[in-house]
Amino acid sequence: MKDVFSLYDPSLFDKESKVNFAYFLGAAVVLDAHNFAEYLRQRKWTSEDEQARDWLAQFTSLGQTYYDKMESNKHNAQIALDLGF
């Protein structure tokens, strides 16, 4: 993503917009890394994941509140049904 950033419309990464493309992409990074739980370092996530998180964090907030919301959404059956899953 970082390497092809220039191909994207900059408005997709407008930090003034609470929900932007970085907000969308961040879910994959923080959920897969279990919000960077230290005991999972090198097993579930690496420095590459940290770099992705840090890069995306330039454009949106990816803190604990974000992780909690995404983790809750991940297990919410109604949201899955609404999305057609």
The sequence of SSEs as H and E is: HHHH
Mean pLDDT: 92
Number of strands: 0
If helices are DSSP runs of H or I spanning 4 or more residues, what is the number of helices?
A: 4
Shape: globular
* Integer tally of domains: 1
**Biggest beta sheet attributes:** none
List its salient traits.
4 helices; 0% strand; mainly alpha
What does this entry look like structurally?
Helix content is 46%, strand content 0%. The longest helix has 12 residues, at 21-32. The protein has helices at residues 21-32, 47-56, 64-74, 77-82. It has one domain (19-82).
Layout: helices, strands, pairs:
Elements: H1 21-32, H2 47-56, H3 64-74, H4 77-82
Helix pairs in contact: 1-2
In short:
The chain is mainly α and 85 residues long. It has one domain (19-82).
